[in-house]
What we know:
Blueprint: E1 11-15, H1 21-31, H2 39-44, E2 50-58, E3 64-71, E4 78-85, H3 91-108, E5 113-118, E6 137-148, E7 151-161, H4 162-176
Parallel strand pairs: 4-5
Antiparallel strand pairs: 1-2, 2-3, 3-4, 5-7, 6-7
Helix pairs in contact: 3-4
Amino acid sequence: xxxxxxxxxxxxxxxxxxxxxxxxxxxxxxxxxxxxxxxxxxxxxxxxxxxxxxxxxxxxxxxxxxxxxxxxxxxxxxxxxxxxxxxxxxxxxxxxxxxxxxxxxxxxxxxxxxxxxxxxxxxxxxxxxxxxxxxxxxxxxxxxxxxxxxxxxxxxxxxxxxxxxxxxxxxxxxxxx
Length: 177
């Protein structure tokens, strides 16, 4: 049985509220990976299409290290996940945030897959390298689909299926909580 853990030894996932919209905008702005509207326009649609959103709080410093979010589930049983961690943070913070967010999705909803869209070919930056990479399946690549930092990037679509998570993801959660 999955439990929706909200913290590891390194981080706490704190449910984000409308009041946190500006802090989340600042993280996205700092990362520069997406074209953002003005702050007011972003805040007007801040929580639309989002089922869960968390601030990632570094337990060591108490600072907001980033945020994660999960989209509303599709009728096919899919959820889109996003993990956005500020530059300069320990890679383990991003890895813990990804594991806890994925686990939360599978623990809370009867879904089949959690998707990630990224400009990176793999999810190593989220801790899914080596043996953990076996959890991730690359679904598609959209060539030159993204534009940021003055150039186009491929968008890679990855998924993690419930069956794999039940078998191999649960031990990951137990390692970090």
